[in-house]
Amino acid sequence: MDGAAELTGARYAALGTTDPGQDGLTEIRTGGAEPPPTGVLSVPIHVQDEVFGHLHLAGKQSDAPFTAEDEQLLHVLAAQAGIAIGNARLYETARQRERWIEGAAAVTTALLTGERAADALLTVAEGARALADADAGVILQPTETGGMEIVTASTFEDPGDIVGTTIAPGSPVLVQLLGGEPVFIDDSATDPRMTTHVRHRFGPSMMLPLQAEGRLIGTLALPRRPGDRPYTAVERSLATQFASQAALALVLADARHGRERLAVYEDRDRIARDLHDLVVQRLFATGMLLESAQRRGGPADPAHEALGRAVDELQSTVQEVRTAIFALQQPPAEAPTSLRGKVLREAAAALAFQPSTRFKGPVDTLVPDQVAIRLLAALRRALATASRQPDVSRLEITVDVTTPLPDGRDAVRLRVYDGEGTTVSWRSPL
Q: Which of 100, 155, 270, 396 could, after both became Cys, cross-link 159 (CB 3.0–4.6 A)?
């Protein structure tokens, strides 16, 4: 523009665009007097087959009108400007595409190298927010009621008031998202399709389905601040491609985690079988031999008492090994549903060491839920007391349903012994 003003002798030159934000190129430069004088010479700037804007000149310093030569010169300058703007567009598009491709590759690598489910979603949200220059990266997932809920968010500030926000079933934007269609919004605060209470915090936004192999995992939303420029067509296309690749990576990562969990379960099951087939059976056979020797010797045999203690210790060891087998057969990442599993989980969570835990009788089938709740409460109190004792390094927990009450009723008994002489006992009829 400075060159146009100098070559034509104009006091005022300006470049105006028909849509300043369409390519992310928003700068409009002016030179010379302000406000512009009358008698403006204006020619369009063509970028490929569209009018990008206009190059304006006004106010010749000689106060003479612009000549045909001036207009011809301005057309030449406008053509050169169109070429330069076109090249800038191509460069900016290439740069953006490179950034999105590199970012998508980095997110895919992170997802396939050990991310947990919640961390994986946050990784996608953070990566997309940085690439889109958005104010937030948000992941929504379908709810059981047919809506969508924000399950994770990456923001520059605390996202606590965003996570948990829901889109009610039947919302126009939800219909598009559940149908696998992206939604592009110029202003979240004023768009009637937006119904969440946080919409006033944002301006332009993209909502992109995370869909792979016919499965809708959720939605990636990338809102910008109010007043920021809308997303360009190139940015929308690149973000949509990113969402598709991220969805596929999430599916692959979930499948890999599933294979790893299956391998863990199979390994635990093999160990449990080995313990049962090799250890328990040998211990049981050894106990039988000791009992036989004890009976042959009779009460007068000096080793009679020692053999009895050895048999008791073996029986106790068999109970503990069977408890370990049961624990190995439980899914490690899931909350236990049986009483045995809950007792083992409570003991492991409360203490810095592994206690000795024994179960006598079919505790999982005989103890009703209400009694189990009271038993676990009594166990927590006993464990809390034991954990506060600095000298306690051994604990024995016994849950017994084989010993009835004095009146003959079936009962469950809990005994917690800390090895230092302190015993906590609890019982309840069944």
A: 155
